[in-house]
What does this fold into?
Amino acid sequence: MSTSITFKKINKLAIPALIAGIAEPVLSITDTAIVGNIEVNATESLAAVGIVGAFISMLIWVFGQTRSAISSIVSQHLGANKLDAVKNLPAQAIFVITSISILIILGTFPFASAIFKLYNASDLILDYSVTYYKIRVFGFPFTLFTMAVFGVFRGLQNTTYPMIIALIGALLNIVLDIILVYGIEGYISPLNIEGAAYASIIAQIVMAILSAILLIRKTEIPLKITFPFNKEIKRFLIMIANLFIRTISLNVALYFASAFATSYGKQYIAAYTIAINIWFLGAFVIDGYASAGNILSGKLLGSKQYDVLLKLGNKLIKYGIIIGVFMMLFGSLIYYPIGKLFTKDPEVLKAFYAVFWVVLIMQPLCALAFIYDGIFKGLGKMKFLRNVLLFSTFIVFVPVLFILDYFDYKLYAIFAAFTFWIAARGIPLIVKFRKMFIPLIQKM
It folds into this structure.
C-alpha cells in the first residue's frame, strides 16, 4: 500500500524534530550568551567556550552518528515489517558507543592543555579552556546515550519524545546557567565559566535518564544487553565507520576555522564563536526537516515505495528553500540586536557584524545540503556521504580558506570557505538521489 507524503505528515515529524534538534545548540548558545556577559574577563571566557565548544561538538558529531545508523536500520526494518529482527540491536549499539566515550574521556582529560594549544589558545584563554573542558567532558557519555535513544525513536517514526526530552534539557540548562554562572547573592557564589560547564553536565544527565525511562516504558525496544550480537551489527559498524570518517572531515573544517579565528586575535575568535553558534542554531532548525527526510526515506526504502521516495525528495527541496530564505530574512531583521545579546565589547561586535551577513546568505544552501544529508542517512548510503564530505572539505573548503587567508580576509575567509563547502556538499547529493531512484521508478 502506497504511503501518502503530505505537508501535514512531514511537519508532524519535522516540527518536533526541529524543536529537539535545537536543544544542543541552545546549550552552547546559552553558555555563549551568559558567559559573554560575566563581569570578569568576559571576552576571554567567551573565547574559551567557543574553542571548547568546537572540540566537544567534534566529539559529539563523530561519535553521535550512532543516532543516524540506528535510525536508518530501525526505520528500514519497520518499513519491511521486520522490526523484531533488530530489537536487541539498539542496546548493543549503545553499549559500544558509551564504552568508547569513556575511553575518549580517559584519553583527552590529561592532555587538555596540549589539545587547546592546537587551537592557538594561550595565556588566560588557554587556562579557561582547560578548566571548562575538564568539567564539561564528563557529560559526553550521557549525550551519546541520549542521541542513540533518539535514533531509536526516529526509526520508529516518533519525534515527539525526543522533543519533550530536549525541551526539558534546554530549559534546565538555561535556569542552571543563570544560577551557577552569576550566582545567587547570599546563597551561591558566582562560578563564572565553571558554572556554565556544570549546568551543561546536569542537563545532559537529566536528558539521558528521561530517554531511558521513555524508551523502556513506551516502546518494545529493550535496554538490556543480550548476546550474541545482532546480525545487523556488522552493517551498523560499517555505517559508523563511514560516518566516523565523514565527521572527522567535517570537523577538520571546523578545526581550521576555529584555529584561524583564534590566530587573528581574541576579538575575532569571540566574534567567530557568536557567528558559528548562530549558524549551528540555523542548521539545527533545518535539521527538523532533515530528520523527517531521514525517518521517512528509510521506511519508504524498506517498503520499496521508490515513487513516493522521489516525491518526498522534491517536496523537501521546496520546503528547504522556503525555510532557508525565511531564516535569512529573519536574521536580517535582528541583525544588530542579536550581536548585543552575546557581548557588549565594541571590537567583538564590529568583527561580528562585518561577517554575519555571510552566515545569513548561506541559509538556503544549508537547507538543501542538510535535508539531503538526512535523506541519505535514512537510506543508509553512508559511504557516499563520506566521499562527498571528503571532497567538500579537502578539495573545496581548505584551499579556499588558505587562499583567502593569504589575502588577509580574516573572518571573511572563514565564512566564504564555509559557503563554498556547503554548496559542494548539497549539489552532489541532489544529483545522486535523482540518478538512483528515477531509473527504479521507470522499471516499476
